[in-house]
Every structure is written in C-alpha cells, then in structure tokens.
C-alpha cells in the first residue's frame, strides 16, 4: 500500500519540489526496487535504479545534469524507508 500511496499522492509533491525535472517514469518492482528515468527541462534523460537496501545509482547524462537530480533521488529513498 505504501508504494501505491507514493505513486498516487507523493509523486506529485516530489515532482513539484524539483524544478529541473520536466517528466519522469518510476516503476516499482516486486522485489521492492525502483527504476526509471527523469527527463530534464533541457530534454536530456537521467536513468536511475534504487535497490531495496536504499542504494541508488544514476547514469546516461552529463555530470552536471546528474547532480541536478540528486535531491529527487534522496527524497525518493527517504520516502521508501519512512513509516509515514
């Protein structure tokens, strides 16, 4: 139920706090991992994966653009492990 809540309610809140992100695709797997991509306002995509232990990685973009999406990744991981 927690993942459903994130997808339907918190996704919008997470998105609005990151002005560099234009759109995203986030997929939750059966083994409690998250994968997807973030499209930035400059048209580039950053791909990401979050393991079920909270470790995450990003790839597919310049170093500067990868840094722009770090706040989104941190917020996503924090939500995954929160009890709210």
Q: What do these coordinates show?
A:
The chain has 84 residues and is of the alpha+beta class. The protein is built from three helices and four strands. The chain has a four-stranded antiparallel beta sheet, covered by helices on one side.
Mean pLDDT: 81
Number of strands: 4
Helical fraction equals 25-40%
Walk across the major sheet and give the strand order: 1-2-3-4
Biggest pleated-sheet summary = 4 strands, antiparallel
In quaternary terms, these chains amount to single chain
Radius of gyration: 12 Å
Number of helices: 3
Give the CA-CA distance, first to last residue: 12 Å
Structural class: alpha+beta
- Strand percentage lies at 25-35%
The ordered string of helix (H) and strand (E) elements is HEEEEHH
The outline comes out as globular
Index terms:
3 helices; four-stranded antiparallel β-sheet; 84 residues; 38% helix; disordered N terminus; alpha+beta
What is the strand and helix layout of this fold?
Layout: H1 2-16, E1 21-28, E2 34-40, E3 45-50, E4 56-59, H2 63-68, H3 70-80
Antiparallel strand pairs: 1-2, 2-3, 3-4
Helix pairs in contact: 1-3
Short description:
The protein has 84 residues and is α+β, with helices and mostly antiparallel strands.
């Amino acid at each position: 139920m927690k993942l459903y809540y994130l997808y339907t309610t918190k996704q919008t809140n997470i998105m609005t706090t990151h002005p560099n992100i234009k759109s995203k695709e986030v997929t939750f797997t059966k083994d409690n991992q998250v994968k997807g991509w973030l499209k930035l306002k400059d048209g580039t995509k950053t791909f990401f994966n979050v393991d079920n232990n909270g470790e995450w990685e990003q790839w597919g973009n310049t170093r500067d653009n990868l840094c722009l999406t770090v706040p989104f990744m941190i917020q996503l991981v924090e939500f995954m492990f929160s009890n709210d």
